[in-house]
Amino acid sequence: MLIFRYLFKQTIKTQFAVMLVLMLIFISQKFVRILGDAADGHIPGAFVAKLLLLNIPNLAILILPISFFIGVLFAHGRLYADSEMSVLFACGYSPNKILGITAAVGAVTFILAGANTLFLTPYVNSIEQQVMANVKADSGISSITPGRFVELSNQAVAFVENITNNGKNMEKVFVAHNPPADKGQPSIVMAARGNLKERPNGSQWLDLSDGTRYEGNLNDLDYKVMRFDRYSVRLQERSAKEQREKIRAMPTAKLFGSDNPDKIAELQWRIAMPVSVIILVLMVVPLGVINPRQGRYAKLFPAIMLYLSYYLLMSAARSSLEDGRIPWYLGMWLVHLLMLVIAGSFLFVRSEKFLTVKAVLKGERRVSNH
């Protein structure tokens, strides 16, 4: 029990130190980006600290697994470099017990990563979206600005004389639309009032009231004049990125049973991060074995490259799921299976059975050489 506490403490302490360093690096990068948006006027300065705090769970999605991986690698590397592992093995402490202790640390990381990706991060993302919606309302970030002609995304130009109620209500609205010849005729709309609304699909519309619409080529005499009480003009559709961001803020329970590729990809991504911790446990223990003469950081570079390959493969699988290029039942599970095979091969190479077989084969070869 004493050895268990010692090894557990050494591993947890190293993982925590690595996590703090990585978190500081990632938060600094995110802080620079948010500060740049505030300097450009996209967000008020009062929201900088709040947005930074709300991004910590998203950063922890990547930091928790890699801090565990590097932390165990550093801790085991030091124990091997100082010959402490050799003493433990000489006292009958088997590699399987080392794996068991590492699995205990991995269980803690697994619980934290699962709680973060499945529950905390979606909740925080929903809060962040509400904050950004308030930012847009408070700062008038909508595409329409009073007293200026503004080009909309659907080949239209709008002019609003006055905007009240935090950008929701407009007075004396002018909209000129000039679509391609095969998609309709030019039109001009003038209305006394208008307001911005968002449809359930995420698209933004300008609802006008008490106005007149002129349709047709004004150089001709056959244009139409129509009086209306209410009229709607589409400003912009929600982009694919915005739709996916909205899905990333959905509770995990609402993602189950969906046939939407974006929701399937998001669900598998949330499950993939804690699952990767289990596979990393099996992978990092044999990778941490070093010769004391090599130094404690001898396996750092290949280990990081292996982890990056794992992460990039999961990211590629996620993109393929979102685009519908691979079926849901393969998805990221194929990546986990591949890494599980690699981890199993590492464990087998370090096992006594493999060493015995290797010794027997070498002995046979020596006999055959005589």
TrEMBL record:
* TM region(s), chain numbering: 12-32, 52-77, 98-120, 271-290, 297-314, 326-349
A Gene Ontology biological process annotation? Answer: transmembrane transport
Q: Does the keyword Plastid apply?
A: no
Keyword Nuclease attributed: no
The record lists the organism as: Celerinatantimonas diazotrophica
Chief subcellular location equals membrane
Q: Which family does the UniProt entry place this protein in? A: Belongs to the LptF/LptG family.
Q: In which compartments does the protein localize? A: Cell inner membrane
Q: Which InterPro entries match?
A: LptF (IPR030922), LptG/LptF_permease (IPR005495)
Q: What is this protein called?
A: Lipopolysaccharide export system permease protein LptF
Query: Mind naming one GO cellular-component term on file for this protein?
Result: ATP-binding cassette (ABC) transporter complex
**Membrane topology reported for the UniProt record:** Multi-pass membrane protein
State the oligomer form and interacting partners.
Answer: Component of the lipopolysaccharide transport and assembly complex. The LptBFG transporter is composed of two ATP-binding proteins (LptB) and two transmembrane proteins (LptF and LptG).
What role does this protein play?
Answer: Part of the ABC transporter complex LptBFG involved in the translocation of lipopolysaccharide (LPS) from the inner membrane to the outer membrane.
- Tell me any Pfam family this protein matches: LptF_LptG
Which UniProt keywords are present, listed alphabetically? Answer: Cell inner membrane, Cell membrane, Membrane, Transmembrane, Transmembrane helix, Transport
